[in-house]
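Q: I'm building a small set of examples for a reading group on sequence design. Run inverse folding on the following structure and report the sequence directly after it, with nothing in between.
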């Protein structure tokens, strides 16, 4: 499966401009490289303008869903659509949408873990649904959002449901870039799956975002990386046949003793 990741410099507090940016990027890059799947970063509609989300957030995807549906079917691509600030009733969530190449919305996930360091709980609601896997081109996959990466239980639950590829969409700051990298390596090794991330670049309220979107294979080896702190397109192909091979060589899933973990 061929991937293209948009390590995007999100324009803060300007959903329309970000939508145009994504459209132009897809027109320019997708037509050239013809990937199967593209990945966008976290909160690409509004950026981290948390105190303006009441005005900036989408309303149950009413703007974003038709935009992405059309992009997917027009270009024949699967879209791991990062995430957006999204109103559901009175509450605002950080929502990820996944579209297949026919333009069908196959999965929707609200970020479960909110970041105290950014005061997210003041502005956002945490998702209340269990994370599930979805399928694109017959491959079992999952998605988590940024701070979710610090909670190994979440990715483990996706791996136990059969995910072979897990995406991390993020706006992770440079100040904690080592955590960003090492946590992804750990999650790939312990779950023996591909970890594919899209981080943003650029700046918001004095915070620089790290870039360095990563593709790590199920053995914990780096396949490719985006550059630090600048907008970029990251391209790669992943070989799914190695997932089963690695899982049978080191059979951690059959060695688990769940009743001793309080599960
Ligand atoms: O956990 C971290 O250090 C960064 C998390 C974050 O920035 C986010 O979830 O948006």
């Amino acid at each position: 499966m061929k991937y293209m990741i948009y390590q995007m410099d999100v324009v803060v507090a300007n959903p329309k401009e970000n939508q145009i940016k994504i459209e132009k990027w897809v027109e320019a890059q997708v037509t050239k490289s013809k990937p199967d799947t593209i990945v966008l970063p976290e909160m690409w509609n509004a950026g981290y303008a948390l105190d303006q989300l009441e005005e900036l957030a989408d309303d149950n995807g009413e703007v974003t869903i038709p935009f992405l549906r059309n992009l997917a079917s027009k270009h024949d691509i699967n879209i791991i659509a990062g995430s957006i600030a999204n109103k559901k009733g009175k509450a605002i969530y950080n929502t990820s949408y996944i579209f297949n190449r026919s333009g069908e919305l196959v999965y929707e996930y609200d970020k479960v873990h909110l970041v105290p360091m950014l005061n997210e709980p003041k502005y956002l609601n945490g998702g209340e649904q269990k994370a599930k896997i979805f399928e694109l081109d017959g491959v079992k996959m999952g998605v988590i959002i940024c701070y979710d990466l610090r909670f190994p239980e979440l990715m483990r639950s996706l791996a136990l449901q059969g995910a072979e590829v897990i995406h991390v969409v993020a706006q992770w700051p440079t100040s904690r870039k080592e955590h960003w990298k090492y946590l992804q390596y750990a999650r790939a090794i312990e779950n023996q799956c591909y970890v594919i991330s899209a981080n943003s670049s650029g700046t918001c309220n004095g915070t620089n975002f790290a870039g360095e979107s990563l593709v790590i294979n199920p053995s914990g080896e780096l396949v490719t990386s985006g550059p630090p702190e600048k907008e970029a397109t990251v391209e790669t192909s992943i070989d799914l046949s190695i997932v089963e091979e690695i899982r049978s060589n080191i059979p951690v899933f059959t060695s688990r003793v769940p009743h001793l973990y309080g599960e």
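The helical segments are 15-33, 53-56, 64-75, 120-123, 152-160, 177-191, 241-249, 252-255.
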